[in-house]
Amino acid sequence: MPYLIKDRDHMRKVREGMRDTFVGAASDKGYQILGFWENGFRHITNNVRPINVPADLEGIKLRTPKGEWRVKMFQSYGANPTPMSFSEVFTALKTGVIDGQENPLAQIYSGKFQEVQKYLSMTGHVYSPAFLATSSRNWDGWSDEVKTAVQDCATKASDFAYETSAQMDNDLVSKIEAAGTVMNEADKQAFIDASKPIYEEFGTQVEGGQKLIDDIQALATGA
């Protein structure tokens, strides 16, 4: 969901306060979550114009992942979302098949998108979590000693992941700008306001969706 996670401190509260919710949901599908990592906050790059408000996305061919809600989100903003594998994005940007894409800074820089994109707009529209996991069958086969050791390492690695990602965000903006890409800070409140229909649709279509949203948002304020 867009702007569901306010910042990394909020994500820490979600990790600590709702761990059982996510671990339980994964367990139902045969996975054991060991650690909460991240890919960070996602931003938009493109070759048409700086993106300050949702209206600036009107008509822009924007690569997105193939998730249903990401596509709906950018459709509601007025963009033309184009689901595509990450490995195809650089060539598609270079040849003009698409105008832009949205990813965390680490993926933008490692994918060398700054070489084929004019604008970087700091929208921070979605926080991308990542999960260190194993199969439930594998987990159940470990001794208690092994489980404790692996879980301890995974938890410590989660803290490292958050700290490292935050530092990378600070470092990578200047590196992307140094490549000639023009950076701007987007009007996040305008995007938050434009995201309300997505929240309403998700809350009514996904079983338990509204409660999950409410529980996560409550942790942002400490309620």
TrEMBL record:
The keyword Signal applies. Pfam families: DctP. It comes from the Bacteria. InterPro entries: DctP_fam, TRAP_DctP, TRAP_DctP_sf. Gene3D superfamilies: Bacterial extracellular solute-binding protein, family 7. Keywords: Signal. This is TRAP transporter substrate-binding protein.
